[in-house]
Design goal:
By secondary structure, this protein is mainly beta. It has helices at 2-18, 39-44, and strands at 29-36, 64-73, 76-84, 89-108, 113-138, 141-156, 161-178, 181-193, 199-204, 207-214.
Amino acid sequence: MKRLFSVALFLWISFAAVAQPAKDIGQRHQLRIGWGDALFEALAFGNSPSHQYPNPQALPEDFSIHERFNSFYTGHFFVAYGYRINKLVRVGGQMDMEGIFWEEGDFDRSHRPVGPIIKQRSYNLVVMPSVRLEYLHRGIVTLYSGAGAGMHVALDNAGGSAFSPALNINILGVQLGRGHWSGGIELGALFALNGASKVYMLGSRLLSFSLNYAW
């Protein structure tokens, strides 16, 4: 992960350093507000099976099992700013935030709660600089790819917090529009982890949509 972070940062600095301003490149500034899916979160933090047994009396009286249920995911809400250096290169940054909510508790052999039901609230916040390569402009269509690298912060309702590197890869983006307003759809992946034991996001935000304003 550290190597990927270093490569992405190097690319961003390199493009910013070598790209020269060009004339007649249109509106330089762009603000994007969007939403991305939470498929990874649904797979990693989904409901556990509801253990209802056909013959619970056959189990020990002190039997209990832990379950997670009522899971809910907001998806990724993000805001991004980009500054066009020339027709090809746009540099900027973005902030991404999502919420992951669920309830959990212990249940006895008859599937009755044993002890309190705990409501968990977890949040992921990512802030990162980014670079975007807009390699095709045809009428109202712009095709682009890009990458970003920065910092991830994980928070929860128990007062816990953790930090990790974050990397975003945009494999393909399609922007449709002309003038100030446009819309976009992106195929990519968002990563945040500290080694194999602390994985916060692994291929999250695979598909995202945005409303864009340029000036």
